[in-house]
């Protein structure tokens, strides 16, 4: 039986220390996984500090499950993520992520202990931001 992980708070960015706590892995493991899994591309800001987004925390939890709970090797986990991707990944442009398109892993959304943001509140906030941007033009 796998370790019960804490729920993910509804916030936009997470530091490497926060992600390490949320996913029960050490920060150096996260840095290593960034090299091994192309899906992990945290934003790097001042002083090369990493900031992970919600979908990356979900992906890290999926990788952790594959490696630690299901016993896959790094290569096997990478292959598993690529095989699962076409059916369970929804493609979406994520603004503010170095202009690159990111893959969102929908398979991890039903995992226990994951607290999803209030989608209606997110929708209202997006409309508010759109209004501000239109007013600025």
Q: Helical amount among residues, as a percent range?
A: 40-55%
Based on CA inertia axes, which overall geometry fits? elongated
The succession of helices and strands, N to C, reads EHHEEHHEEH
- How many strands appear in the DSSP assignment? 5
Assigned CATH class: Mainly Alpha
**Count of individual helical segments:** 5
Q: Radius of gyration, rounded?
A: 16 Å
| Biggest sheet: strand arrangement | 1-3-2
Distance between the termini: 54 Å
Number of domains: 1
Structural class: alpha+beta
Could you give a short account of the major beta sheet? 3 strands, antiparallel
In what range is the share of β-strand residues?
15-25%
Mean pLDDT figure = 78
CATH architecture: Orthogonal Bundle
Here the CATH topology equals Multidrug-efflux Transporter Regulator, Chain: A, Domain 2
Question: Which regions contain 5 or more consecutive residues with pLDDT less than 50?
Answer: 86-112
